[in-house]
Amino acid sequence: MVRTTAEGDVRVLTLDRPDRRNALDHEALGELETAVAEATEPVVYLQGAGEAFCAGADLDVVETLDAEGAGEFAALGQRVATTIEQYDGAVVAGVDGAARGGGVELALACDLRVATPDATFAETGVKLGLFGAWGGTGRLPRIVGEGEALDLALSGRTVDAETALRMGLVSRVVSDPRAVADEVAAVDRGALRELKARMRDASDQQTLEDREQAAFARLVETADFGSAAAHDGE
């Protein structure tokens, strides 16, 4: 259900269940967690096969769960999202077509969300008497702000790529999101890792600044200033 291929410095992970719009069951979530955990490239690129990015949790599975099973399923999805968020490198979500519910939540766990003009987003759980429980209630307001997050989650409305861009849900709308993964993979990996760690750090301001200083000092020791000067001259 999850295809994985190494393409230079990018590990491409494809949710490959197009007949179900790449909806995720226990097996698919487990495969995704393993694929991310085993990747070693500077960049992981997450995409969906067919006409959708990801329809979220497989509702045929969800409706069979009792309360205990539902809690375990939510915990699995949360663990997968955390594995994505904590990847030792950058994770880019290339969203083409529909991202719904858990599909939005997986994208939120990525470092960059890049959409095609055909991408659409919705947190539709509320229409079913549910809500996304793979970490989205924390990540969505952090990324787009509380007002926009509540608007999306409480209404269940669908937004197009340009609206998602204005909200900050995605960082770019381009015809080829995969090219953005290559762009990120071309930077210095050490700097990439340090930047991600600093921006994800939720410590107090003084601790953040101390860690920022230490990271900068580490990078200065290995930076290729001659290469930077060459790029500036292009």
TrEMBL record:
InterPro entries referenced in this protein's UniProt entry, alphabetically: ClpP/crotonase-like_dom_sf, Enoyl-CoA_hyd/isom_CS, Enoyl-CoA_hydra/iso
Domain of life: Archaea
Pfam families, per the entry: ECH_1
One example GO MF annotation: catalytic activity
Family: Belongs to the enoyl-CoA hydratase/isomerase family.
Cross-referenced PANTHER family: ENOYL-COA HYDRATASE, IP11341P-RELATED
Name of this chain's protein: Enoyl-CoA hydratase
